[in-house]
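Allow me, if you will, to draw on your knowledge of protein folds for a short while. Thank you for your consideration; the sequence and its tokens are set out here:
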Amino acid sequence: TMVAASRPGARLLCVAAAACTVALLGPRGAFVTSPDAAGRAQVETTGADAVASASSGRRLVLSGAASAVAGLGESLQGMAPAGAEEPEAPYDVVVEVMLGGTAKETKSFTLKVHPEWAPIGAAQFKKLIEKGWFEEAAIFRVVPGFIAQFGLPAKAQSRLENIKDDPVKVSNKKGTMVFATAGANTRTSQLFINYGDNAFLDKQGFSPFAEVMGDGLQVVEQFNAEYKESPNQGSITSQGNVYLDKNFPRLSKITKMTIQK
């Protein structure tokens, strides 16, 4: 079924066709910056699955009339057709964690997954839970006031296929959970929970799909931050908990995730 262009749409197409260059300037980066008590903290990314985006923007250059028209065509194709399938209803996931540190206490909290916020991300998360992907997975990066990151499995696994990005519909508020990325359409299994209101991540394409419910934030904020950003993601990917248990034995770990039906 073709989508007929309205007269204003036709005029927009003509303007796009006439454009020679559309540029959004800024060096492409592989890290996320966040403010802290000292001014700001950088969270570096390592590999395709780390929390990442451009710190000061992305360079996007579309040269020539053909590129401009193509961009407009993509936006038209992205429009949902009449009768499109509705997103799955929200559902709860109970997360059991061993808090690590010296106490090694086990606690749990509940996530509310919102497929209507980010359906592709929500579907990927559900698939990974059903595979047991997160069992015994370490919460290997904890930056107080910013994020807690996890999602690399306890045992080395074959690399997952990337999933496409979801549009950002909900801000990165405290308690929301988001897929990490190393650029456009690079999400796989790494996730982070926002420890603060990180609205600056919205424009970088980080799309929340779940939120920590009720007093669960008190549990999340007890994740062991002793090692901060020291664990190496490449070593975790290749060796799993063998590497982490030897070098960072007091990390918090997820023991189980259960979808509530």
Q: What stands out?
A: Residues 1-33, 35-84 have pLDDT under 50 and may be disordered. Helices lie at 7-18, 64-77, 119-130, 216-220, 233-239, 241-247. The two ends are 38 Å apart (CA to CA). The longest strand covers residues 91-98.
